[in-house]
Amino acid sequence: MVEKKRKFPAIIIKHRGFFNLEKVLKTITNWFNEEDFEDFDITDYKYKIPSPAGAEYEIRMKGQKKVTGYVMFEIEVILWVYDLREVELIKDGEKIKTNEGRIIIEVFPVLILDWQKRFGGNKFLQRLQDFYHNYIIKYKIADYWDDMCLIKAGQLVKFVQESLSQEVT
Model confidence over 2-60: pLDDT tens digits? Predict the structure, then answer.
């Protein structure tokens, strides 16, 4: 049986210091919209009542992009924010409201094959799909679609890091 979901290792961004949480969230949603991800949704949003250290958030987002009639990219983003406090900074003589805290962002790219489930059902169609994967599009999946999915996730990570004003870690 051929695997229909090809999961890749998570890309993790860690940042401690000053950042603008609204800007980070807008950057992620704008990137998904610019890259034509049709099914973008915030799947989970948790907020913990602030302690003396600050507030905590857990935000999960997922976007899906139908590349062909057979291939679909799915990228899930999980943000964990700890010790979040609002602070005012003076930058170039102006007061700026921003946030201080810790943020961990995980990006999970997934390549989904046969998202329309054309080869589901009886054994003949499943064997036909095995033949299709192993002999016809084997190298296109491994050399092209896998790379394109990882490149899309890398582009998202790059935009998020720029919004955090951080170097690559």
Answer: 668 889 999 999 999 999 999 999 999 999 999 999 889 999 999 998 888 889 999 99
Report the chain's C-alpha Rg in angstroms: 20
Q: Mind listing the pLDDT tens digit for each residue in 47-65?
A: 998 888 889 999 999 999 9
Within a domain: residue 111?
A: yes
SS3 24: helix
Residue 53 resides in a domain? yes
Are 109 and 149 a contacting pair, CB within 8 Å?
yes
Question: Which of 134, 167, 155 lies closest to 30 in space, CA to CA?
Answer: 155
Q: Are strands 5-7 and 11-19 parallel, antiparallel or unpaired?
A: unpaired
Location of structure tokens 């943020």 = 103
Question: Closest Cα partner for 146 from 106, 118, 107, 113?
Answer: 113
Q: Which has more pLDDT, 100 or 50?
A: 100
Domain that holds residue 106: 5-164
Domain count, the chain: 1
d(CA 150, CA 161): 16
Residue 169 in domain: no
Please report whether residue 74 resides in a domain: yes
